């Protein structure tokens, strides 16, 4: 049963992903990029994308004050286990008034900044590698699951829709995500949820003193 689920997930990724262009291996673009946190959801998404597109995929984690050092180390460990390249991109959501205000839309501003950064980094890498300005639109992925979509506080899902982010786990519950992650041997399959530091603030407390150190 789990094998069937994995096959279904791989089919989703293959059908929605950016296909491999007919280029020499040293010129292949990284055009399948997973928004990565090191949590079980994004880890499973990264593992699936990497299995389908091993030469044209990467995981990308946004580094800001809201990311703890423990979370960063965990993300590095899991990415290394999967084998997927990990990009560590600095994001500046803390410069946005809507994020700092912490009035219920901070996650939206955070994800908007993250997805925009992922697009920019992938496109820049492609242009630098090709030494010209031919456009390349990467496909972005996240680890959103079926339970997340029922949570009205997850306003970051709006940003995902705006950026056409692919959510290959959208048909799986959180428990099913863990089951598949365990089946695939991911080391964090049973890890407890670890929300970002900003989300631990009470509603209305400005996100000005968040530190990931």
Please provide a written account of the structure.
It contains 7 helices and 4 strands, in the order αβαβαβααβαα. The chain has 213 residues and is of the alpha/beta class. A 4-stranded parallel beta sheet has the order 3-2-1-4, sandwiched between helices. α1 crosses α2 and α2 packs parallel to α3 (69-82). The chain is globular and about 50 Å long. The N and C termini lie far apart (42 Å). The mean pLDDT is 88.
Task: Please report which band the strand proportion falls in: under 5%, 5-15%, 15-25%, 25-35%, 35-45% or over 45%.
Answer: 5-15%
**What strand order characterises the main sheet?**
3-2-1-4
Mean pLDDT: 88
Task: Detail the poorly predicted runs.
Answer: none
Give the count of helical stretches: 7
Radius of gyration (CA) equals 17 Å
Order of helices and strands: HEHEHEHHEHH
What structural category do the secondary elements indicate?
A: alpha/beta
Helix proportion of residues, in percent?
40-55%
InterPro entries: LarE (IPR005232), Ni-pincer_cofactor_biosynth (IPR052188), Rossmann-like_a/b/a_fold (IPR014729)
Organism: Phytophthora nicotianae (Potato buckeye rot agent)
GO molecular function: sulfurtransferase activity
Protein name: NAD/GMP synthase domain-containing protein
């Amino acid at each position: 049963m789990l094998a069937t689920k994995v096959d279904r997930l791989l089919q989703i990724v293959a059908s929605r992903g950016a296909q491999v262009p007919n280029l020499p291996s040293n010129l292949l673009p990284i055009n399948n990029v997973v928004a990565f946190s090191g949590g079980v959801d994004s880890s499973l998404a990264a593992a699936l994308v990497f299995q389908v597109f091993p030469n044209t995929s990467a995981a990308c984690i946004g580094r800001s004050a809201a990311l703890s050092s423990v979370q960063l180390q965990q993300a590095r460990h899991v990415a290394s286990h999967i084998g997927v390249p990990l990009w560590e991109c600095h994001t500046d959501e803390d410069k946005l008034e809507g994020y700092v205000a912490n009035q219920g839309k901070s996650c939206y501003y955070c994800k908007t900044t993250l997805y925009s950064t992922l697009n920019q980094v992938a496109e820049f890498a492609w242009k630098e590698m090709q030494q010209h300005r031919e456009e390349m639109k990467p496909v972005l992925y996240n680890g959103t699951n079926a339970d997340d979509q029922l949570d009205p506080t997850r306003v970051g899902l709006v940003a995902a829709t705006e950026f056409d982010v692919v959510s290959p786990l959208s048909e799986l519950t959180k428990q099913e995500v863990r089951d598949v992650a365990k089946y695939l041997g991911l080391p964090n399959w049973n890890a407890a949820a670890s929300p970002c530091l900003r989300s631990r603030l009470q509603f209305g407390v400005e996100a000005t003193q968040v530190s990931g150190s």
